[in-house]
Amino acid sequence: MSKFVTPPRRFARVAIVSDTHGYLDERVAAIVATCDYAVHAGDISKASVLEALKPQQRRVVAVAGNNDLSHMWSATESHIADGLPEVAELELPGGKLVVEHGHKHGMSSPCHDSLRQAYPEARVIVYGHTHKLVIDKSSSPWVINPGAAGRVRTHGGPSCLVLIADKNQWSVEMQRFSTIAA
Predict the structure, then answer these.
(1) Which pTM does this prediction carry?
(2) Consecutive sets of 10 residues in the chain, 182 residues long: mean pLDDT of each?
(3) What domains can you pick out in the chain, each with its CATH number?
């Protein structure tokens, strides 16, 4: 597990993306540029996607998805896939964000209870894999999925989430774009 500790701040904006499969929609990249940090929940597929994530603090937290095996990346980039952790944590004002791809908690529909049991110390758990936008605040920790930020199975268009975290309150904003960029 990789752990990332942020410097003490009053609040933080975190762009959350997943399932780019080698392509990051430019409108999602523009949202990331307005945030302090970026989190990628796996199925990245190309180094250019990670390079396109340019949050203001220049910190990107990314985990491996089921399609981020080194033999599935180009030979010149396979070492990047090998270096991706399965799980990562990001300390934020007011709590911890934990991210994993989610496929080990149910292949077609990851179990939110299973994720909550695995990471009870988190304030929010991020997963990807299903390409479906989900914000589950029914129990603590919250379980969220940003949907797909690329071209593959976007279920209505590329999407991402923005988490706004301060010491006392967290909120999540959905961003979904039409399937075809203007």
Answers:
(1) 0.91
(2) 59 95 95 97 94 93 93 90 95 96 80 94 95 94 94 85 96 88 51
(3) 2-176 (3.60.21.10)
